[in-house]
Amino acid sequence: MTPPLHVLWVGASPPDLSAAAYGPFELHACASLDDSAQALRDAAHDALLMWLAPGMAQGLGDWQALSHAVLDAAVVVVAPDLSPGLALQLAQRGVQDLLPEASADAATLARVLRLAVERKRLERAARKAYATDLSTGLPNHAQLLEHMTHLLALREREPAPMALLVLRIEGLSTTERALGSEAANVLRRKLAVRVRAGLRASDVVASIGNDAFAVLLAWIDAPDDARRVAGKLALSLQRPVRVASQDQAVAVAVGVSQYPEHGRQAEELLRRAIGQATGGSSMGRAGTSAANDEA
């Protein structure tokens, strides 16, 4: 028997998919977008279905948690007002499929969800095969989890504290709108260099999405070390960066999880750190008067 696809949905109730040919489906309701982001962090789901009311789709591009939602699940959007420009923008953010509300009958929606999940599975397999983020040269999300899994297995045999930091960057989309996608990629690369330069050779830096870096501190001497390093890195990233002859400033939100206090599994530690960085307040972008460097 084919195992069911686990689908989170937020917004209007979807049609009954119990008899759909592309199933079976197991639907789980969420009250809001932020609740759906938390649900994805708490447990694995195959898809996130957003059935949006008129006017809501336009604001979806600014939803901070979208970049992480598209890593965790196949995201499908149903809305009555999907313009071509908005559809292209959301596709570029990683949304798997977009469907006009008038076309979202049970048969069509079931097919779209199933194919979106299959594409997401292929995408994950490709990410695992090609374990480097080409924009920054850093290990990607899959490679980070693999490295953490090996290190955690070692820590179970030889206990020692370690920590995972997540640095969520705000401001990349501003640079992209003002200067173009290549300028935003240059900014990401320069920020990645700063993160790497502020750490020990034994620490691991990874790109876990278009707007976030993860830092694995393979060992720490005291619990406060993780917060201290995170604060140092955040201050470094807030210094303006010269891109295309202009100073670009970003804001940074930080998440921290520690082994063994906060978990013993790689996914568990990463979800906690991402959740803190996504839900926490950011620091920076108050101005661009600070000293600039070319790193």
What does this structure look like?
The protein is an alpha/beta fold and 295 residues long. The strands form three sheets. Strands 2-1-3-4-5 form a five-stranded parallel β-sheet, with helices on both faces. The protein has a five-stranded antiparallel β-sheet with strand order 7-8-6-11-12, with helices on both faces. 43% of the residues lie in helices and 22% in strands. It has two domains: 5-129, Response regulator (Rossmann fold, 3-Layer(aba) Sandwich); 141-284, 2-Layer Sandwich (Alpha-Beta Plaits). It is globular. It contains ten helices and twelve strands. Helix 7 runs antiparallel to helix 8 (181-197).
Q: Termini separation (Å)?
A: 54 Å
What is the CATH topology assignment of the largest domain? Alpha-Beta Plaits
SS element count, helices: 10
Structural category: alpha/beta
Biggest beta-sheet profile: 5 strands, parallel
- The global form is globular
CATH class of the largest domain: Alpha Beta
* CATH-defined architecture of the largest domain: 2-Layer Sandwich
State the CATH superfamily name of the largest domain: Reverse transcriptase/Diguanylate cyclase domain
Question: How do the strands line up in the largest sheet?
Answer: 2-1-3-4-5
**What is the CA-atom radius of gyration, in angstroms?**
20 Å
The percent range for strand residues is 15-25%
Average residue pLDDT: 87
Assign a percent range to the helix content.
40-55%
**Total number of distinct structural domains:** 2
Number of strands: 12
**Element order: H for helix, E for strand:** EEHEHHEHEHHEHHEEHEEEHE
Low-confidence stretches: 285-295
